[in-house]
Amino acid sequence: MRRTALSACPLHCYDLCAFCVQLEGDQIVDITGNAEHPVTKGFVCSRAQGLIERHNSPDRILSPMAREGSQWRRITWEAALDQIARRLVDALEGGGPAAIMHIDGAGSTGALKGLGHRFFNALGGVTRMEGLAVRDRGRAAMRADFGEAASPAWSDLTRSRTIFLWGRNPAATNLHLIPYLQEAREKGATVVTINPVRLAVEGLADEQIAIRPGADVLLALSMAHVILEERRWRGDFVSAHVSGFASYAEAVSHFSPEQTAEEVGLDAETIRRLARLYAKERPASIVLGAGVLRYREGYLAVRAIDALAAITGQLGIAGGGIHLASDRHEIGRSVAGDDDAHRVASPCAQGATRIPARNLAEEVLRRKRAGSPAEPPIEVAVIHSANPVSQMPNMQRAIEAFHAIPFKVAIDFTLTDTSRHADILLPAATSFEESDLFVSAYNDYIHYQPALVPPRGQVWPEHRIWGELSRRMCALQTAQGTGQSPAQQGEGAPGWRSLLCADEAFWASTPDAWLEGILQPFGVSLADWTGGGPRPNPGLQVVPFREGSFSTASGKAELAGEVEFKPLLDRRKVVPVHHGQDRRGEEDFRLIFVHRPGRHNSQLWELDNGDDGADLALHTEDLRELNLRPGDDVVAETERGSMVLSVRADDGVPRRCAVLSSGKPLHDGGGVNLLTDASENSTFHDMNDPGFAVNDTFCQLRKIALAERIR
Ligand SMILES: Nc1nc2c(c(=O)[nH]1)N[C@H]1C(S)=C(S)[C@@H](COP(=O)(O)OP(=O)(O)OC[C@H]3O[C@@H](n4cnc5c(=O)[nH]c(N)nc54)[C@H](O)[C@@H]3O)O[C@H]1N2
Ligand SMILES: Nc1nc2c(c(=O)[nH]1)N[C@H]1C(S)=C(S)[C@@H](COP(=O)(O)OP(=O)(O)OC[C@H]3O[C@@H](n4cnc5c(=O)[nH]c(N)nc54)[C@H](O)[C@@H]3O)O[C@H]1N2
Ligand code: SF4
Ligand SMILES: [Mo]
């Protein structure tokens, strides 16, 4: 008999759609949208069907596997976990916790996926990768300015008179934002896109501003220049709620539109007009996207954009603000052991060494060559909800780095570009097989879903893996017994054993109990969540920063100023045009990465939806110059590597740029990060900036000669 269960999308999409999952026995037969959701209403995208296909896929890994050379062998959970526990303990007692690398990514929105952090926090200061998700960089910038990343409710957009869609393409990545933009426009708002690529947004935007790739920081600074020059800033707000204004104003005075116009790719009058629109036609809001963040100056671009909102007093007011992410939405942090309260209880969580994804490969290789007690070589890596080999820049180097790690464990559904390099592969449970709470920093609603179907094969929910590892490691008799690494001995450090074993009762608990624990501080209980369905995120602030209340040390918005922005001045002529030293000849094309409808980062590429994703979009004039026709194959070549892609014409793409998407598996002709290198990420090196600059990749394009084809 058919039944319907309420659920939500586990993908890290802005939208976090509410699902009605149709079940027959233990089979998932369909997913439709839950009409009760105030935002996503009844509509879901094609990726929802993809989730069913993935769940049922014959390619799914259904039991633990061990790699033997190029072969995989099924092993029992007992054998797999014994081996992993042993290797983790050896690493702890050898190099210490820093010899263990924990990698998780943007694979899932499930709050209990954060339990991996709980487990590794208890080991005391492991090495951790961060910043694989490009949007983390925008959040880091917001934290520097406001003390936290905080965005208004999506619905607040309908109170804006001006909306800048700045580096986001809702038609591809954020479908459910569109009705709000439409409603705002119906009420008279002006919607402007700021994007080097002209988007197919018929009826969605009043104007498209095509800036040069990577020029966002200069545009924002020049808009500020106009706002200050024309005295359109809000002195009352600034004196009460902004710190660092003098230094900021001094920096901005050097970025007049006339000085930056060429690099920004707009005429000075257009920049002036945008500044007036933003400051005058208020309230104005800015919807930020990942497009701004994939450049050397992506972090500073967000800080410069934040400053626009601060100097015009458009924070803490209805219809204002900056839309990106909200830290307070991440209500699972307590159970993950990442919140402040847990850090106090478990001091070693603080000791984790964080390595930005852009440096990960170099760092692993450097430590391998020249490890020290403080930075030991990585002995064990555990990867879940992430596909870093595919998704981090410089793939070839990433593969080398993974080979340099003696023991790697991956938890995933299938063999991916990353998991195929693992020594032990553990099967991941799909969202339908586990109870969880779907939560995202980018979305205003949360969803509870109990496990809907029994796990396929030998699949376990992820928390059981952490719990079992924890139990085994506590029970292991070790030579040193104390659970202290050599580096810790004699320092009075508690050692991993006491921390890990103190969590034994925690791991004996159940998903529902953990979820109750997450919700309880907000006065919400699963028991009164009758019938599931969406609820507003308890951390939601419809309008954040009310009364100018910022959670920075000073209580004010802390603007970046001369130290941060002035270095851009020296390089102004070069920053957006060609970043840094890399060669850029006449024949070079800049790669612009975008996310693709129907795919999700490195996920769901196995679906046959008529879009094989291997194409490079170019302007017709560039096609002509290269003597190419749509459908032709080209070799795209950089200093890092090369790959073959078929070309497509799109006159929305700026000249000398090529638009493509990342994620498609290497064995299937994907692997675009073979081309990228983003180890240098900014002019002003801010340790808080975890981002990377894949869009600063320049490639050469060459038509594949007939002779090469025949060969
Ligand atoms: N369908 C689909 N949806 C997704 C995802 C997916 O893979 N597929 N992934 C999810 C994830 S993890 C993320 S991070 C988001 C990303 O989604 P978005 O925030 O929309 O980001 P992108 O698609 O990466 O790029 C958005 C736009 O930035 C523009 N852009 C490129 N360079 C510049 C520039 O220099 N300045 C400006 N102003 N704009 C520029 C691009 O032309 C593009 O139109 O999407 C989420 N949603
Ligand atoms: N060149 C280039 N590189 C990029 C980008 C770009 O635009 N260009 N975009 C960047 C961005 S914005 C992002 S967010 C990252 C995304 O990169 P990642 O963080 O790696 O995220 P995904 O590719 O979505 O998924 C990673 C893996 O998680 C697995 N997974 C999904 N759900 C679960 C689960 O419940 N449990 C477990 N154990 N595994 C699960 C999936 O099968 C997949 O293999 O890539 C970044 N890399
Ligand atoms: S991928 Fe995004 S739009 Fe598609 S169903 Fe999931 S949340 Fe909705
Ligand atoms: Mo992302």
From TrEMBL:
GO molecular function: iron-sulfur cluster binding; metal ion binding; molybdopterin cofactor binding; oxidoreductase activity
SMART domains: Molybdop_Fe4S4
Keyword Metal-binding: yes
Domain annotation 4Fe-4S Mo/W bis-MGD-type: ranges: 2-59
Highest taxon, organism lineage: Bacteria
Alphabetic keyword roster: Iron, Iron-sulfur, Metal-binding, Molybdenum, Oxidoreductase
Cofactor needs: Mo-bis(molybdopterin guanine dinucleotide)
Annotated SUPFAM superfamilies: ADC-like (SSF50692), Formate dehydrogenase/DMSO reductase, domains 1-3 (SSF53706)
Membership in a protein family: Belongs to the prokaryotic molybdopterin-containing oxidoreductase family.
Name of the molecule in the record: Molybdopterin-dependent oxidoreductase
Originating organism: Heliomicrobium undosum
